[in-house]
Specification:
506 residues; alpha+beta; Heat Shock Protein 90; 3 domains; 5-stranded mixed sheet; 3-stranded antiparallel sheet; 57% helix
Length: 506
């Protein structure tokens, strides 16, 4: 398999052979003389230098071969290739544009002022520069933009793939966090009730001492397991994530009844049927009551608990108050307070405020004030579908759009610029060449042979061409054919008289 460096050397070698082949064919053809060999050696050196600098300085290589055409016309065959490579390799169009402008200006001065070759030769050389230099360069620029567009599309697809994978990962992590949150809340609550039952056995006076000791060990083990559960699963929780809209473990009334069956002294206020609440508000109330009952069972076993739920218009007031533990606080792991922090955030997401703190009598109060119809949080919006929604995808799409715009612009320039420049050259060339040289067909027909030059009515003031006469010494005129203004009539004079006239067959 050819390495990239080897491919570059091979491509440069082929370009060098292409550049020197016309020079070798012309230079090695007989007759042989010293000037031809010197010209061939100079051409080979110039071609080698152009190929050597072509990758780093493609515009310089183009200028070298264009300059070489002044010494050897065979360079015209390789100008299109170096012009294409200049457009393909150069990152900016400015250097090539400046180079073409300088070459055009210098060629105009050289041909029209210094060498006096005439407008026809200037037009021919300008056309060669346009179609052998500018047009291939524009094609190279277009090809470069096509490659850039393909790369931008590839980056765009890669960004889309990364976005899809990231979306799937976010969904998976969110689901893990939701499961962990529900496990933490539900299982932690159940373990607290088990610890409460163990504490009741530990305080029972009709059990043997060994059973009470075992019950105490069970309570301590359950409390430690609850803390470990809180520490392990709490790492996976997203307390600021979207709140669940389905209370775990049934209604708040069922939650209170379950705690009462576990041995807690719980009283509901008001004692009758509690009001129906919207789903999201009911979920937040359920969470607050469950967390408060769990804390009361863990840190104040045996203390009476009052759960008060009241609605006043569009406001919901919830208070969970427990008294001090009858036997004093039981030994166990200290509270980290993270449960109340998560509870505060959950109530905030529901549009409410939660306050919690100890009471003067040694008890504890958890109070929540929520709107009956909470606002929809921003993070409750549906998950966006896979696609260009991330910053990386948006940037890739912008690059693709820019690349497409550059490709379309390059194509329009490649098609329109040569035509526009050719039109400008023609509009400049035609008036200059034809001024004072146009002989109409009607005037030509009226010119009498053998008449004196001064008697010829309608004869243009100057013949066509740089010298005005052909090899036979006759003058040539045009009928004004656009855009080339080629010679149409030949008039021959002798001793100041018209001796013959004829139409030049094209």
């Amino acid at each position: 398999m050819t390495r990239p460096g080897g491919r570059r050397w091979l491509a440069d070698g082929l370009l060098w052979l292409l550049a020197v082949w016309p020079l070798l064919v012309a230079g090695l053809s007989p007759p042989y003389d010293r000037s031809a060999l010197l010209s061939l050696a100079g051409g080979l050196a110039l071609s080698t230098g152009a190929v050597a600098v072509g990758r780093r300085f493609p515009v310089v290589a183009l200028v070298l071969v264009v300059g070489g055409s002044l010494l050897d016309g065979n360079y015209l065959f390789v100008i299109p290739f170096f012009a294409y490579l200049a457009g393909r390799r150069a990152a900016s169009a400015v250097p090539a544009g400046v180079a073409f402008a300088v070459i055009a200006a210098a060629g105009t001065v050289l041909n029209l002022v210094l060498l006096g070759t005439g407008a026809a030769t200037w037009f021919l050389l300008a056309s060669v520069l346009l179609f052998a230099g500018v047009l291939p360069w524009l094609v190279g620029r277009y090809r470069r933009q096509q490659v850039a567009l393909a790369r931008a599309r590839r980056r765009h697809e890669e960004a889309r793939d990364r976005e899809r994978r990231g979306l799937a990962e976010r969904v998976r992590l969110r689901e893990r966090a939701r499961i962990a949150r529900e496990m933490h809340d539900s299982l932690g609550h159940d373990l607290s009730l088990i610890a409460l039952r163990a504490a009741a056995l530990e305080l029972a006076g009709d059990l043997p001492a060994g059973h009470r000791s075992a019950a105490g060990e069970l309570r301590a083990s359950v409390a430690a397991a609850t803390e470990r559960l809180h520490g392990i699963i709490g790492l996976l929780r997203e307390d600021n994530g979207p709140a669940s809209v389905r209370p775990a473990g049934g209604s708040v009334a069922d939650l209170v009844d379950g705690a009462r069956e576990a041995g807690m002294t719980v009283r509901r206020e008001p004692a009758g049927q509690w009001p129906e609440l919207p789903v999201r508000t009911a979920a937040a109330v359920h969470r607050v009551v469950r967390e408060a009952l769990t804390n009361a069972a863990r840190y104040a076993p045996g203390a009476p608990v009052t759960v008060t739920l009241d609605t006043d218009g569009d406001r919901v007031a919830l208070d969970v108050v427990n008294g001090p533990p009858p036997a004093g606080p039981l030994p166990g792991p200290p509270s980290t307070g993270s449960g109340l922090l998560g509870l505060t955030e959950r109530v905030r997401l529901a549009g409410g405020v939660l306050t919690a703190g100890p009471r003067a009598d040694g008890g504890f109060t958890v109070a929540a004030r929520l709107p009956r119809h909470p606002p929809v949080p921003d993070d409750a919006s549906p998950e966006p579908p896979p696609g260009p929604s991330g910053d990386g995808v948006g940037e890739a799409e912008r690059r693709v759009r820019d690349a497409r715009r550059r490709v379309r612009r390059s194509l329009l320039v490649a098609l329109g610029a040569p035509a526009g420049i050719a039109a400008v050259l023609t509009l400049v060339y035609y008036p200059v060449v034809t001024a004072g040289t146009v002989l109409s067909e009607a005037t030509y027909a009226r010119l009498p042979v053998s008449a004196a030059r001064a008697e010829l009515d309608g004869l243009p003031r100057r013949p066509l061409g740089p010298t005005g006469t052909d090899r036979a010494g006759c003058e040539q005129y045009t009928d004004g054919n656009f855009p080339l203004a080629v010679p149409t009539w030949r008039l021959c004079f002798a001793d100041g008289r018209l001796v013959s006239k004829e139409r030049i067959e094209q």
